[in-house]
């Protein structure tokens, strides 16, 4: 099992969410995050007042999928989150030791 | 034949099941409560007597040394299906063997049978001790009654309890009640409980009723609502309406117990939905069923809350306790005829004044807000009794409107009065459209307040932005109208989909009635219609996309409106719930606001006139398309055309471009040449890619074509339209052969088979320009302030062959993408302006990189620095 964590542009979340559920991914965790990568923050000067964007607003999507789904899920995220411009985000894939559904105590594949 | 204990328990359980099964929603209220009480009393008394008979078999005497005392809800004669049945064994002395026997014979079997029975064994002294320590135990003793056993002992307990805990401590008791209510409101006022209210403990819950009962009992020894009415602590109308609301709450509570199959008083989402599927539930047309149910719930809850607040107000006045130290400082004075401040509160001296001057109904609230105080309860009652005075002429009276606007202007100090106006019903009578949103619920986890409450909170949040001195509140011209808009922004909810549109349609009527001017009404309509625009665009659209920002700017059209919309958006979001407003959203909203503002300030693309012109051009283009061009792919091009393109290029030319775009299906580019008076106009269409502009410029230079001007555009779907005005460097008649050569060169360069630098170097500079070698030195200016989306590079230099190519090539080498360019030639002086971004679509923010670009361009234009700067000095 793997956890896929994707940092994407905020306005892309609907497309990514829809595409993921279309390939059968049933659940995900979505959070509003701020940060910067190569894109960096930047300064805008507005009427003399500096408007500093230190951290850029992004969306973090987390899903846990079975090994054989990883490739498809990652490809789906890339396809739907890409604008081709800087700041499109990143995807991280982690190994997951165990998954347990709290209500039933089911473990592993069944709990995903 | 006598029943065994087991049979008693079974019988009791069956009876409870029968109540559970036979009832439909409407009869699950008071009726079920009464029934439950009767069967429980009968059951427990039977069990008690049976135990007594068993006792008498082995002992002398009866069980009458103790009393069996229902306390709390059971004592108060209020039982829901799964309520705890709280019983106390009151005994004369500690370790009474009778008490032990009763516990063993009654309670243990009942517990084993799974009944929810609360149990305690106490002497009178125990009771008094614990009552002193715990306020809620005190209140549960107020509810105590004697079910069986020693009545004398119980009487003594009541007497001792009254003497020790109540008498002489009535004020303390009242303080405790008010404090507990406040704590409870605070706890259950949190987001989770607003969406999934607690029927027993929340605001407007059964507990509000209990607090009234306890207070009436402790302070005045009154036990029922009827006695409270007789003592003038409650009006007869309020009593009737309170009883109806309580009945509704009991229906819901019992039903909730059935659905959750346990004692659960919190109305979770899942149960809200289940409840609408229960027998006897009456759905209302036009509402989501669950929203209809919850609306009823909140209407009843706010009714209970309101009546209980009136009750406590009266008590405080009867006891002459002033809860507000601040208002006591207000000196008594007459505000106008019949209206005064008396002991810190606003008062109408006689009810007839209202009949003579109905406008006072609203003006009273204005006074209360202005002086930061409250309306005397008796005056409040006058107002409630005279609400029939709110008719059409009241609603369109200038005097009332003025009071309303004054209230609006007062901001947060008016908030409290607006709440009272809402509760009394005055607000929905004055603005009848408000009735639709009263207690209107949205069944989701996002909107935690009912719509009326949310509207008032939006008003409050807007006031807070003013108090925080949030930019740009200071620039708002007449804030009262913005405040009024905040109050009305969701007025279209509760009448179907698209509430912003529906609300905007209602505004002219409401604002017109209040006598507002046309231009104010237009702004209000706009704000209501678009109150979601900024949030939607900020969170769902690409803010790097200029077209999107320009479209917003075109909708908004002026900065005054943008400022109002921005502040309204913030207030609306903050008033929606903790999830609706985060620093994250604020960052996106600010970015959008500043970008739109910038575009509006430049005024090129978003003035009302240009917006109209763009729309007109678009319509002309669509109308002018011949049938063969009306296919979806080509229409998509039209939809994606940028505003500046539609403004500058004539519709018939645009249609020509669309025709050309068809050629791109199987060709790399499309070329079109047209003769003008003294020059030629060349149009090239191609899929946009970095360096395209440089390549085309190179071809022109190679073919001895001097560029006089150029307009380059990129359609939203990635097709570049580059238009060049050119003339021949060498006077000769241009013929078709020339354009054929240009087309061939374009084909070659776009396929990577043509390089310019060496070919251009091989060319001898044509004569006419050789003579104009010496002009002023060149200048390059890089500006990031002009546009939020592009870095603007301005080049001032002397004209020369191949100049445009050199500049474009240099920019390409620096990793820059040219989005648009304006070339203007004044005799031999040229000003070229390029709008550029890097290949990642970002502006060039780093000063170092800007400096490098400048140097690269200047080198191209002037050659190595020292050849210009170091001029040999030759003395005469």
> Approximately how much helix is present in the residues of chain A?
10-25%
Backbone structural class of chain B: alpha+beta
What would you report as the Rg of chain A, rounded to the nearest angstrom? 17 Å
Number of helices of chain A: 2
Measured distance between first and last alpha carbons of chain B: 147 Å
Strand arrangement, major sheet of chain B? 3-2-1-4
Largest sheet of chain B: 4 strands, mixed
Description:
The complex is a heterodimer of chains A (112) and B (876). Chain A has 112 residues and is α+β, with helices and mostly antiparallel strands. Helices cover 20% and strands 36% of the residues of chain A. Chain A is built from 2 helices and 6 strands; from the N terminus they run E-H-E-E-E-E-H-E. Chain A has helices at residues 13-22, 70-81; strands spanning 2-8, 29-35, 42-46, 49-53, 56-65, 90-95. Chain A has a 4-stranded antiparallel beta sheet, covered by helices on one side. In chain A, strands 3-4 form a two-stranded antiparallel sheet. In chain A, strand 3 and strand 4 form a beta hairpin. In chain A, helix 1 packs antiparallel against helix 2. Chain A is globular. Chain B is of the alpha+beta class. Chain B is 56% helix and 12% strand. In chain B, the strands form 4 sheets. Chain B has a 4-stranded mixed beta sheet with strand order 3-2-1-4, sandwiched between helices. In chain B, helix 4 (97-112) links the parallel strand 2 and strand 3. In chain B, helix 24 packs across helix 26 (518-529) and helix 35 runs antiparallel to helix 36 (736-750). The longest helix of chain B is centred in the middle third of the chain and has 30 residues, at 289-318. Chain B is elongated. Chains A and B meet through strand 2 and strand 3 of A and helix 30 of B.
């Amino acid at each position: 099992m793997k956890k896929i964590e994707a940092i994407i542009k905020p306005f892309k979340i609907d497309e990514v969410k829809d595409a993921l559920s279309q390939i059968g991914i049933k659940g995900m965790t979505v959070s509003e995050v701020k940060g910067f990568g190569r894109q960096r923050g930047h300064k805008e000067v507005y009427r003399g007042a500096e408007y500093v964007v230190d951290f850029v607003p992004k969306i973090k999507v987390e899903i846990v999928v079975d090994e054989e789904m990883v490739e498809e899920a990652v490809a789906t995220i890339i396809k739907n989150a890409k604008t081709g411009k800087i700041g499109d985000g990143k995807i991280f894939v982690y190994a997951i030791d165990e998954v347990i559904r709290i209500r039933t105590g089911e473990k592993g594949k069944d709990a995903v | 034949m006598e029943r065994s204990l087991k049979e008693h328990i079974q019988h009791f359980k069956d009876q409870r099941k029968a109540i559970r099964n036979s009832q439909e929603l409407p009869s699950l209220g008071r009726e079920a409560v009464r029934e439950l009480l009767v069967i429980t009393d009968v059951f427990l008394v039977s069990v008690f007597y049976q135990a007594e008979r068993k006792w008498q078999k082995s002992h002398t005497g009866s069980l009458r040394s103790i009393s069996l005392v229902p306390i709390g809800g059971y004592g108060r004669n209020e039982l829901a299906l799964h309520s705890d049945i709280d019983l106390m064994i009151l005994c004369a002395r500690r370790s009474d063997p009778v008490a032990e026997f009763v516990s063993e014979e009654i309670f243990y079997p009942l517990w084993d049978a799974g009944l929810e029975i609360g149990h305690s064994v106490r002497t009178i002294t125990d009771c008094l001790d614990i009552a002193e320590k715990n306020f809620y135990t005190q209140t549960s003793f107020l509810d105590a009654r004697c079910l069986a056993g020693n009545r004398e002992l119980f009487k003594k307990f009541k007497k001792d309890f009254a003497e020790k805990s109540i008498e002489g401590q009535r004020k303390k008791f009242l303080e405790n009640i008010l404090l507990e209510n406040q704590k409870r409101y605070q706890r259950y006022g949190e987001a989770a409980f607003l969406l999934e209210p607690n029927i027993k403990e929340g605001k407007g819950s059964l507990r509000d009723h209990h607090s009234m009962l306890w207070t009436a009992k402790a302070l005045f020894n009154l036990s029922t609502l009827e006695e409270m009415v007789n003592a003038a602590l409650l009006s007869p109308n309020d009593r009737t309406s309170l009883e109806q609301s309580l009945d509704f709450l009991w229906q819901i509570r019992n039903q909730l117990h059935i659905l959750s199959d346990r004692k659960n008083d919190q109305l979770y989402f899942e149960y809200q939905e289940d409840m609408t599927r229960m027998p006897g539930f009456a759905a209302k047309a036009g509402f989501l069923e669950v929203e209809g149910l919850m609306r009823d719930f909140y209407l009843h809850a706010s009714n209970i809350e309101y009546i209980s607040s009136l009750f406590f107000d009266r008590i405080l006045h009867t006891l002459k306790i002033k809860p507000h130290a601040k208002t006591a400082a207000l000196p008594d004075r007459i505000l106008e005829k019949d209206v005064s401040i008396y002991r810190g509160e606003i008062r109408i001296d006689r009810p007839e004044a209202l009949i003579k001057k109905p406008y006072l109904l609203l003006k009273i609230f204005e006074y209360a807000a202005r002086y930061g105080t409250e309306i005397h309860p008796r005056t409040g009652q006058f107002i409630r009794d005279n609400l029939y005075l709110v008719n059409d002429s009241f609603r369109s009276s200038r005097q009332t409107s003025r009071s309303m606007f004054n209230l609006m202007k007062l901001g947060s100090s008016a908030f409290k009065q607006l709440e009272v106006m809402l509760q009394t019903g005055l607000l929905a009578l004055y603005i009848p459209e408000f009735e639709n949103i009263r207690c209107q619920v949205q069944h989701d986890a996002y909107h935690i307040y009912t719509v009326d409450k949310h509207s008032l909170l939006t008003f409050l949040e807007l006031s807070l932005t003013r108090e925080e001195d949030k930019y740009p509140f200071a620039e708002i011209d007449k804030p009262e109208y913005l405040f009024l808009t905040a109050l009305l922004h969701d007025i279209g909810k509760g009448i179907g989909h698209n509430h912003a549109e529906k609300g905007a349609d209602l505004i002219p009527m409401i604002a017109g009635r209040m006598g507002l001017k046309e231009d104010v009404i237009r702004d209000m309509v706009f704000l209501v219609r678009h109150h979601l625009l900024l949030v939607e665009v900020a969170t769902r659209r690409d803010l790097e996309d200029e077209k999107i920002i320009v479209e917003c700017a075109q909708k908004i059209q002026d900065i005054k409106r943008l400022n109002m919309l921005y502040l309204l958006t913030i207030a609306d979001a903050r008033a929606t719930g903790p999830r609706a407003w985060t620093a994250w959203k604020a960052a996106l909203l600010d970015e959008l606001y500043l970008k739109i503002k910038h575009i509006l300030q430049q005024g090129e693309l978003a003035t009302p006139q240009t917006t109209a012109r763009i729309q007109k051009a678009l319509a002309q283009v669509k109308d002018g398309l011949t049938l063969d061009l009306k296919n979806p792919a080509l229409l998509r091009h039209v939809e994606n055309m940028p505003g500046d393109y539609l403004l500058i290029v004539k519709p018939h030319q645009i249609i020509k471009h669309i025709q050309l775009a068809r050629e791109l299906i199987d060709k790399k580019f499309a070329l079109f040449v047209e003769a003008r008076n003294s020059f030629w106009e060349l149009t090239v269409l191609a899929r946009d890619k970095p360096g395209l502009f440089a390549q085309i410029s190179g071809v022109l230079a190679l073919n001895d074509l001097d560029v006089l001007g150029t307009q380059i555009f990129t359609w939203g779907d990635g097709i570049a339209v580059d238009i060049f005005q050119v003339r021949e460097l060498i006077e000769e008649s241009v013929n078709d052969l020339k354009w054929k050569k240009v087309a061939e060169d374009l084909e070659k360069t776009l396929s990577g088979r043509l390089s310019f630098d060496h070919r251009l170097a091989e060319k001898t500079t044509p004569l006419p320009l050789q003579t104009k070698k010496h002009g002023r030195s060149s200048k390059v200016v890089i500006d990031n302030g002009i546009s939020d989306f592009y870095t603007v590079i301005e080049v001032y230099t002397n004209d020369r062959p191949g100049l445009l190519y050199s500049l474009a090539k240099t920019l390409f080498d620096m990793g820059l993408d040219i989005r648009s360019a304006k070339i203007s030639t004044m005799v031999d002086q040229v000003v070229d302006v390029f709008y550029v971004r890097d290949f990642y679509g970002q502006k060039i923010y780093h000063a170092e990189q800007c400096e490098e670009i400048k140097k690269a361009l200047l080198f191209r234009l002037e050659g190595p620095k020292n050849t210009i700067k170091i001029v040999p000095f030759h003395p005469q």
